[in-house]
């Protein structure tokens, strides 16, 4: 499944989450997707972005691993369905938005948590989502100089004035 479509599924699932375990599960799913997208970009992207892409993959792994992994549910791990990144800049912008939404949802869960362990679990998940989002933003910041290569174009973009 294409990355933007998977991200959309994740955003809808997060919006429909009714309680803390559902939100934590969606945070975990988002981090697993960040890991998968970072890995794919590291393998297939331009060499100059591979270090940043690996950092995204590692940040996603930290946020989707550990002893506090929620039960994934009947749908399984969505990131395992990733078959292509598609339009890389759009996929990264959407992933960044998803990770931002996850952070906001986790803040709400943490503020309502009465159990200290659950509170700190939320705080760790917030930090992980923020770190992954920072990595996405860094890749996006550097991506425009590689945009033509990422879309398979080797000349001026259609409609640009530099072709004259």
Mind explaining what this structure looks like?
Helices cover 67% and strands 0% of the residues. It has 164 residues and is mainly alpha-helical. Residues 148-164 have low confidence and may be disordered.
Note poorly predicted spans: 148-164
What is the helix/strand order? HHHHHH
Largest sheet at a glance?
A: none
Number of strands: 0
Judged by helices, strands and strand pairing, the structural class is mainly alpha
Question: What is Rg?
Answer: 17 Å
How does the overall form come out from the CA principal axes? globular
Q: What is the tally of helical segments?
A: 6
Share of helical residues: 55-70%
Average pLDDT metric: 84
* End-to-end distance: 38 Å
The fraction of residues assigned to DSSP E strands is: under 5%
Main features:
single chain, 164 residues, mainly alpha, 6 helices, 67% helix, 0% strand, globular, disordered C terminus
Task: Offer a quick outline of the entry.
This protein is mainly α. It contains 6 helices and no strands.
């Amino acid at each position: 499944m294409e990355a933007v479509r998977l991200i959309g599924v994740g955003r809808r699932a997060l919006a429909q989450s009714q309680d803390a375990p559902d939100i934590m599960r969606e945070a975990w799913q988002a981090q697993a997707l960040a890991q998968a997208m970072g890995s794919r970009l590291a393998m297939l992207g331009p060499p100059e972005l591979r270090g940043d892409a690996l950092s995204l993959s590692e940040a996603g792994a930290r946020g989707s691993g550990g002893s506090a992994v929620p039960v994934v549910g009947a749908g399984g791990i969505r990131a395992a369905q990733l078959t292509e990144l598609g339009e890389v800049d759009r996929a990264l912008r959407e992933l960044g938005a998803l990770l931002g939404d996850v952070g906001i949802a986790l803040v709400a869960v943490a503020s309502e948590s009465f159990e200290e362990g659950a509170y700190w679990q939320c705080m760790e998940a917030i930090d992980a989502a923020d770190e992954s989002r920072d990595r996405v933003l860094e890749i996006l910041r550097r991506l425009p100089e590689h945009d033509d290569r990422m879309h398979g174009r080797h000349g001026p973009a259609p409609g640009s004035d530099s072709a004259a």
